[in-house]
Design brief:
The protein is 35% helix and 22% strand. It is an alpha+beta fold. It has one domain: Ribonuclease Z/Hydroxyacylglutathione hydrolase-like (Metallo-beta-lactamase, Chain A, 4-Layer Sandwich), CATH 3.60.15.
């Protein structure tokens, strides 16, 4: 596990890149905006699980920060159980797994570990669990190779590319100096060493788990090749961060692909899920509670982003703006040093989508990006 100093640093950052700036503060536990929550406010306690459907159990792993937890899904796999998503490489998370091994999983064989995507709250303990039980890690290639590339960057110094992107977005020198002081390799500190080999999964694959069959349905935008798992017979979708009930997953431009269009990928993934997955499934998200109303939620997420794009385009048509100038139009909470990086990535994603759609153009003015309307 991470040492004490690292754990304190991880906790101070919020513990996860999944934390969103667009949380719906009016959320209620049993019904909201067309969603229903069959289990209400119930959640599994330490060492416990809750049954969701035949062959599907829900465990909750506590985490630091605003999210407070990640949901892990335990899938019957012949004479064993497959674990989907694991929590961060921190004592608070590993202790939760030890409690499960002594409780609901006592005497149970772990058959495999599946990571929906590369973020540390999802695969932070994947290597630890795989090593402990002598099993394989299953992931998409896009997620595994990207995770490996990030972990391989062991520098403590913020790279020039990150500083240049922050300046381009409109950060002032005080914010840049604070970015330098925070250092760089927090991602690596959140992940137990990944196994050198893994089992690749890809879109359309069928994972045969004895009496149960799970189809891999991939999405993108939040991460490169996010894997959802759909059990058509049981009517269950393991959604990871591709669909969350209370918040809109972080969709950001980052320095690994600075010219990418992640919001375009995200919107295309929503359309794909609408066309592929039935509306009446029980959706099991990484954060929050299992819910019904998948299509309602997908359409709300799509429409929310479309409305923000419209608002931005209208504002930019009136005057040129930098990414930092768009924060009040995009986020329903104050943006400060603790969340400026997250906000910048999301703002750049929205601005890139408007560029791709031909609704704005970008001007580089002495290293700062100004966005102009297109006549």
């Amino acid at each position: 596990m991470a040492d004490r100093d690292d754990e304190e640093r991880i906790a101070a950052t919020g513990g996860s890149p999944d934390a969103s700036l667009t949380q719906d503060d009016s959320f209620t536990a049993t019904s909201h905006a067309g969603l229903t929550y069959p289990w209400g406010e119930a959640a599994p306690g330490e060492g416990e699980t809750i049954g969701i459907a035949d062959g599907v159990r829900w465990a909750r792993i506590p985490m630091p920060g605003s999210l407070g937890h990640i949901n892990s899904w335990l899938l019957d796999d012949g004479d064993g159980v497959a674990i989907v998503d694991t929590g961060i490489c921190m004592t608070i998370c590993s202790d939760a797994w030890k409690a499960l091994y002594a409780g609901a999983l006592s005497g149970t064989r772990i058959s495999r570990v599946i990571g929906t995507h590369l973020h540390p709250d999802h695969i932070g303990l994947a290597g630890w669990i795989a090593k402990k039980h002598g099993v394989k890690l299953w992931m998409t290639r896009g997620e595994m190779l990207t995770a490996r590339a990030i972990v391989a960057d062991s520098s403590d110094t913020v790279p020039d590319e990150a500083l240049a992107q922050s300046r381009a977005a409109g950060w002032d020198e005080e914010a840049i100096e604070a970015q330098k002081a925070r250092g760089w390799n927090m991602f690596q500190r959140m992940i137990f060493p990944l196994p050198r080999s893994y089992v690749r999964i890809e879109d359309g694959d069928i994972l045969d788990m004895g009496a149960h069959r799970w189809r891999v349905v991939t999405g993108s935008g939040h991460s490169p090749e996010h894997a959802c798992l759909w059990n058509e017979k049981a009517g269950v979708l393991i959604a990871g961060d591709q669909v969350l009930p209370r918040i809109s997953s972080n969709v950001s431009v980052n320095i690994t692909e600075p010219d990418a269009d992640p919001l375009g990928e995200w919107l295309a993934s929503i359309d794909k899920l609408l066309a592929t997955i039935p509306a009446d499934v029980v959706t099991c998200p990484a954060h929050g509670e299992p819910f019904r109303g998948l299509h309602v939620r997908l359409m709300a997420l799509r429409d929310e982003h479309r409305m923000r794009l419209y608002t931005l385009a209208e504002a930019i048509a009136k005057q040129p703006l930098r990414a930092v100038d768009t924060f009040p139009m995009l986020f329903n909470r104050p943006i400060g040093p603790h969340n400026q990086g997250l906000a910048t990535g999301e703002a750049l994603a929205h601005l890139k989508r408007l560029e791709v759609e031909g609704r704005v153009k970008r001007e580089d003015r002495d290293g700062v990006w100004w966005y102009h309307g297109v006549a």
